[in-house]
Amino acid sequence: MRLARIAHPSGVAFASIEGDGDDAQVLEIAEHPFGQPNFTGKRWPLADVRLLAPILPSKVIAVGRNYAKHAAEFGNEVPSEPMLFIKPSTTVVGPNAPIRRPSDVGRVDFEGELAIVIGQPVKNVPAARAASAILGYTVANDVSARDLQKSDGQWGRAKGFDTFCPLGPWIDTSIDPSDLALRSEVDGELKQDGRTSDLVHKVPELVEFVSRVMTLLPGDVILTGTPEGVGPIVDGQSVSITIDGIGTLTNPVQDV
Question: Which InterPro entries match (predicted)?
């Protein structure tokens, strides 16, 4: 199932997307998408609704340096345990929403990532049971103010600006995340070309590790890290991140 959050003619709702291309339809879900969804019977062509961020998490937990070649491109070692940092919920925006780039922070980079969406409250879940805690997967862009990341040491400011965590276009609940192609393009030019099979710490391990630190709530998001090839984005550009089997997340860049 592909779960989305949409703005439709009567308001905002969660929905399931059926079909592809011009024939795609969205089926409204009553209340929330967790557990067995209840459908209202309302449906629209996908072209007649606007896709929003597919989930509004209480927290976004991100994992740093989880691809060896990305760590190496900045002269870093891969940590022996997952390196965690938090992005505020206010960083989250949806497809086609602008990444609002502060004009006074220096270099701002895109980082294409696979995102895990949690489906139920969990604490201390073992890796062997991690799949039962996961609602599905979506595409993420861990936007980063690179100069601040270097100067601050701590990453909260560099990673925490409003709009610095685009998510979308929807959540796929059935895909196997172990070996997916991930590509990032800026204005149509390929920048990142990686595979999730190159993750140092794999999805089950990440869910186990994070849930030992903090309780994960339904809708919480874990960003799994980015492959090599990250780079700067500037006003007027457009960033598209594609994960095969899930879809493409595209966002314009605007200076503020």
Answer: Fumarylacetoacetase-like_C, Fumarylacetoacetase_C_sf, Rv2993c-like_N
Integer CA distances (angstroms), 246 to 106, 113, 175, in order: 32, 12, 8
Residue 204 and residue 128 in contact, taking contact as beta carbons nearer than 8 Å:
yes
The C-alpha atoms of residue 161 and residue 64 are separated, in whole angstroms, by: 17
Whole-Å CA distances, 211 to 133, 178, 189, 216, 241: 10, 20, 37, 6, 27
- Give the three-state DSSP class for 12: strand
Q: Each residue of 164-180: pLDDT tens digit?
A: 999 999 999 999 999 99
- Helix, strand, coil proportions of the chain in percent (round to 5)? 20, 45, 35
**In this structure, what token pair is assigned to residue 9?**
């003619």
Across the strands, what pairs with 12?
7
Beta bridge partners of 62: 85, 223
Output the pLDDT for position 160: 98
Place of tokens 């800026």: 186
Residue with tokens 């696979």: 114
Q: What is the pLDDT of residues 200-226, one digit of tens each?
A: 999 999 999 999 999 999 999 999 999
Terminal CA-CA length for the chain: 37
Instruction: Specify the DSSP element, H or E, that contains 153.
Output: none
Single pTM value for the model: 0.97
Domains recognised in the chain with CATH numbers: 2-52 (2.30.30.370), 60-255 (3.90.850.10)
In terms of Cα–Cα distance, which of 235, 239, 216 is closest to 165? 239
